[in-house]
Amino acid sequence: MPANETVPLFPTTMFPTTIAGSLPKPSWLATPNKLWAPWRLEGDELNAAKDDATLLALKLQEDAGIDIVGDGEQSRQHFVHGFLEAVEGIDFDKRVELGIRNDRYKAMCPTVVGPLRLRARVHAREAQLARAHTKRKLKFTLPGPMTIVDTIADAHYGDRVKMAFAFAALLNEEARGLAADGVDVIQFDEPAFNVYMDAAAGWGIEALHRAIDGVACKSAVHICYGYGIDANIEWKATLGAEWRQYEKFFPALAKSRIDQVSVECINSRVPMSVLRLLDGKDVLIGVIDVATEKVETPEEIAGVINEAARFIPAQNIIACTNCGMAPMRREIAAMKLEALGLGAALARKGFN
Questions:
Q1: Number of domains in the chain
Q2: Contact (Cβ atoms closer than 8 angstroms) between residue 187 and residue 139
Q3: What is the pTM of this model?
Q4: Do 307 and 275 form a contact (C-beta atoms < 8 A)?
């Protein structure tokens, strides 16, 4: 589809469906069932394999009835570092062990050693490929500024906020390019918002505003409780009977220029009533649990959507996954996507 072709912003159906971002990679592309999975090819063969995997991800979503599709992040080893690899001023050989998300887990992270600058467009290849091969609405994900600075060491800026705004400027540059490529929604992934709530309501949102300046498409922010990995599951067990992190910065998000907010709902302890705090926003309701291999039934998914509709207008609800599905078995992810499509269809029947 040509980038300049006029298309409606969203499907006309109630409760359109989408994914949070990542899908499992084929075993011929990367080691399966693993975050930071090593590539199994190199050079031109790797680039061609990434293209093939992107097309497969689109087909998988379309077959499952997903309305707003994405590239499945098939060309990225990690949702943050897939962007950082194109940034000048970062030394990937100078890795430092950091406590990510306020020491929830450890990771070996590259270091910012000089002024930040994009070498070139980051995701043009996969975005243009996806746009050319689907007629559905296309969403593309980028890491948010706060989450980036929580996932990298700093030996240059000496100030977390200053570095976040430097990254926000680069994200803006790429986001403008993605919009020109024909992307309908650009989503910034900010799991760090659920950890640094006060900062999220302040400079975290302002950094997102810098990232979307002049971007000619819908904007979204994804805020979840993390991938379905052991460290995140163990952290969730410490959060008590109700997870109320969202309510600490949702009022600020409601006043922000971000169009959509993606949140974790199914099998979480988030009180649905906090969704009222997102008045005026489209809300991506997580109805697929990425921390279990149990496949949701359409009835379970419709139930979560119906519960959300008690607190936000039905026309503002988009059915989504709780988080990315990168570490999941491919066959399980495929079944969950099919359930997502069926569950949203079932929920629509109840509103007709």
A1: 1
A2: yes
A3: 0.93
A4: no
